[in-house]
Amino acid sequence: MYSDIGSSWIAILSAFISSFLTALIATPKIAEFNRRCGIVGIDYHKPNKPEIPEMGGISMLAGLSVSSIILLLWYPLSFWYTVSFLLIALSTGCVGIVDDLIGLNAKIKPLLTFLAGLIPVILNTVAYPKIYQGYLSVPFGRIRITILYNLLLPLGIAVASNTMNMCDPVNGVMSGSSTIISATLLIASIAMGRFHASPYIASILGCTLAFYIYNKYPARIFPGDTGTLSIGAAIAYASAIGGLEFIALTAMLTQILNALFTLISLGGFFERKSISERPVEVLMDGRITANTDPRAPITLTRMLTASKSMTEKEIAFAFFILTGFSCILALTSILLIPR
Amino acid sequence: MIRLGLLLNIAFAWILLIVLSYLTVNVIAELTLPDGYFLKFIEALLKALSVAVLLALWLYIWKKLSKIYFEKLLRDRISTFSNSLARDR
Questions:
Q1: Where do the DSSP E strands lie in A195-306?
Q2: 0.80 cut: is pTM over it?
Q3: Average pLDDT value for chain A
Q4: A76 or B84, which is more confident?
């Protein structure tokens, strides 16, 4: 591939460690700062509805930025990969920051993430060597879609970031699921010899793992749209760098199906606050149960709690099992994709 | 804790994706029209449309099955409620 990273384990390890440590150190400081500034969100699934610092995704962005700068300094020939990866994460992160601070229309958000996804398409016109060639590796073959790929890439980035944004129902689900997905993609990139993408995936793994420590039940910080949009976009773009699009699509099936359930039941994009009926209700003992009102959106959480109420921890664990199952299917797909 | 139906739903979506990619690689990608700039454009358009139709079909089949499954889940829930109400009385 057009990269000087080659099969360097040092690149993978340095990206992982730098991203992990940055997010680990930055997250509590950002939580404290955001609480002081009043950037907080209500944890609806706790009986006492506590206020938790929002927009913690900034620490994950910091992790991705530090690891990208290290990769830029050590591997200058991978300049275009690294710069485009960093710009994708930062631009979708900025969309998230605006949404967290002032709120964006639910229909504008996918459009803005699509526009952010155009960055590598624009960079590819000036990059030498090219960032991507327009090939799509799928089971049973490889398709060359030179022109169509320019449209599919931003579309994929918009879909991934928005599905990740829609799949953060209880404490730790987004960060935990992203950790499982990025670990799967890292294994896939190594198994398929796509080492040039591994450091970028390792940096996502590092920051999501560190963030999970603070975001798991009971959450001390929320990622906000800043975290969900940027991590979704980073996962999509890192998989595109490594030609792992089908693997990523399969690994994210839980999140994609959750988004489809929601969109189909609501009949389009709606902001969370504008939905009159919540998909679930919190009982007096803190357990979560499905809302039986037919107007409530169908989400995976509502399906999980349809037959019996569950604790927040049990719901998060169920999400991890579903994501883990999708990831096993994703790893099985490697056998069907020709090298 | 996890309903088998949800795991099957994911597995089903995956199998449909594999069938879709098989059809794309072995049927749609093989579709060729004679040389000529306009005909090549039509060819690309036909291929893109075929993939779009397959994707729509994937979504339609998956949506139908999911709807049946969720309605069954909610019916179970309502019957559980009725049973507990009957017991309380």
A1: 280-282, 288-290
A2: yes
A3: 91
A4: A76
